[in-house]
From TrEMBL:
SUPFAM superfamilies tied to this protein: CO dehydrogenase flavoprotein C-terminal domain-like, FAD-binding/transporter-associated domain-like
UniProt feature coiled coil, ranges: none
InterPro entries the UniProt entry points to: CO_DH_flav_C, CO_DH_flav_C_dom_sf, Diverse_Substr_Oxidored, FAD-bd_PCMH, FAD-bd_PCMH-like_sf, FAD-bd_PCMH_sub1, FAD-bd_PCMH_sub2, Mopterin_DH_FAD-bd
Organism lineage string: Bacteria, Pseudomonadati, Pseudomonadota, Alphaproteobacteria, Caulobacterales
Domain FAD-binding PCMH-type: 1-222
Protein name per Swiss-Prot or TrEMBL: Xanthine dehydrogenase family protein subunit M
Keywords: FAD, Flavoprotein
Gene3D superfamilies from the UniProt entry: 3.30.465.10, CO dehydrogenase flavoprotein, C-terminal domain, Uridine Diphospho-n-acetylenolpyruvylglucosamine Reductase, domain 2
MF term (GO), any: oxidoreductase activity
Organism: Phenylobacterium hankyongense
Length: 325
């Protein structure tokens, strides 16, 4: 790990100002991903701005019946909040499916959204990786790519986004609030994460020094909420395929639904056309049509070919569960 300086901020605006005063500064909350990256010298910040004392550790009701979540709310606290458990069960279950109890006690809402890929080659400085070292190449394309993307890929990167929480928030149409030197703004979560394209080193649309302060959930949509995660171990493993679903089923027929997928792409993957294919059909008949749209253009790279049929099977199981609820 390389030497760095440290500063504790007391307000969001103060944190932004502190970061602006140093080249290559980073914010640190729980540090559950950043410190690992610093130890491997994948991240080499010259200055750390501690954002644990900004007063962003509360979950508040919004006037329209939603929730506003501070960026420093710990994953465990969010998962077990009674309002989240009863009104946003898909989010609670996604959080509890991620990492370990110790990590969830430390990890934060803002940091979880910004955690970086778990691609093996990204974490191996001896191997070329366009995300870690732009222009060096992508070892995963012809390497061991079991956990990597099958949709939204580019010739420069097939990394996946690792967050379970972000997949559930994508299904719930969350909004991310930020502050930067240019002021405050609200970003629909659909526009926060990006596909790799020609710049896989950029995970999000945030500008340099922009700080996440809150995540707002709109009132919960009608329907059964399900989070199903398929992984290599029963716990402490990232998703091979995950599905966050809110499905409104009446009389055996689907009236509407939302579907977001993890483990498939560089960002939480949601295809609204797939949701339109659900409406007016029984669950058993809708799964294949919806999967066709979710997987349009899907391509495996050898070790991860299995993800394409696995996605179909997982979606069918989720819709069947919703129909029986």
């Amino acid at each position: 790990m390389r030497a760095f300086s440290y500063e504790r901020a007391e307000t969001p605006e103060g944190a932004v100002k502190a970061a602006a005063g140093h080249p290559n500064a980073k914010y640190i909350g729980g540090g559950t991903n950043l410190l690992d990256l610093m130890k491997l010298e994948i991240e080499t910040p010259s200055h750390l701005v501690d954002v644990n004392h900004l007063g962003l550790d509360r979950i508040e009701e919004t006037p329209d019946g939603g929730l506003r979540i501070g960026a420093q709310v710990r994953n465990s606290d969010l998962a077990w909040d009674p309002r989240v458990r009863t009104r946003y069960g898909v989010l609670s279950r996604a959080l509890l499916a991620g990492a370990s109890g110790q990590l969830r006690n430390k990890a934060t809402t803002g940091g979880n959204l910004l955690q970086r890929t778990r691609c093996y080659y990204f974490y191996d400085p001896a191997k070329p990786c366009n995300k870690r070292d732009p222009g060096s190449g992508c070892s995963a394309l012809d390497g061991f790519n079991r956990i990597l993307a099958v949709v939204g890929t580019s010739p420069k990167c097939i990394a996946t986004h690792p967050s379970d929480m972000a997949v559930a928030m994508r299904a719930l149409d969350a909004t991310v609030e930020t502050v930067s030197a240019e002021g405050r703004r609200a970003i629909p979560i659909a526009e926060l994460h990006r596909l790799p394209g020609d710049h896989p080193e950029r995970d999000t649309t945030l500008s340099a020094g922009e700080l996440i302060t809150h995540v707002t959930l709109p009132p919960p949509p009608p329907g059964v909420q399900i989070y199903r995660k398929v992984r290599d171990r029963a716990s402490y493993a990232f998703a091979l395929v995950s599905v966050a679903a809110v499905v409104d089923t009446r009389g055996g027929e689907i009236r509407g639904g939302r579907l977001a997928f993890g483990g498939l792409a560089h960002k939480p993957w949601r295809v609204e056309a797939a949701e339109q294919a659900l409406a007016g059909h029984p669950a058993s008949a809708a799964a294949n049509a919806a999967a066709d749209r979710v997987l349009e253009g899907a391509k495996g790279f050898g070790s991860n070919d299995f993800k394409i049929p696995l996605t179909r099977q997982t979606l069918a199981a989720v819709l069947s569960q919703a129909a029986q609820a």
